[in-house]
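Reopening this ticket.

The earlier resolution said the output was attached, but the attachment link was broken on my side. Pasting everything inline this time so it's all in one place.
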Amino acid sequence: MARNGGPHGYRAARAQHATSWRARRRKRVPHAGVPPTGAPGTAESRDARTAGEFEEQFAAMMIGTGMSPMTARVFAALIISESGSLTAAELVQRLQVSPATISNAIRWLEGRQMVAREREARRMRYFVDVDVWYHTWAASARAMAAWADTTRRGAELFGADTPTGDRLRTTSQFFELLGHDMGQAAAHWRQALSLRRGG
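Inline output:
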């Protein structure tokens, strides 16, 4: 911690990038007079630092909106990676956590269709699809429909003339309208994306 900012300035992602850079530096012997790739002050060093800072900001934003810290870190690592994909082993090494921790985060993200997986030889690769936000939004719209359906049945069960029934009916109406609007927004985005790709 002292080497990477001290107890008050320590940032995990930045420390990870710095550690990776130091490991690369030890493995390479540069030519005389030529700064090694990734050395302080080089474009690669600045790019790594900028990427690390953005990764932290992106994860912090998601944590602030309700996502668990580790799940946010996993998704941030995936979405800013060059290919939009990483293997479980790469995530373990990058985030310095256990495979079980990665598995739990991936399970949550898959449940909301924010990531997908594919087998690559003997290892599993996780990736963020270009249509991730359409699939995630559509899944949320289906969740709103489930809320609307369940609370509507509750209103019928308790009776609309009771406080409980009235409360459930209002809840059902809210989620029904929200789900409808979300479905329309998802379809609109799919159309806009299709036109953009066609152009």
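Reporter confirms the inline version is readable. The beta strands are 85-87, 116-120, 123-127. The two ends are 50 Å apart (CA to CA).
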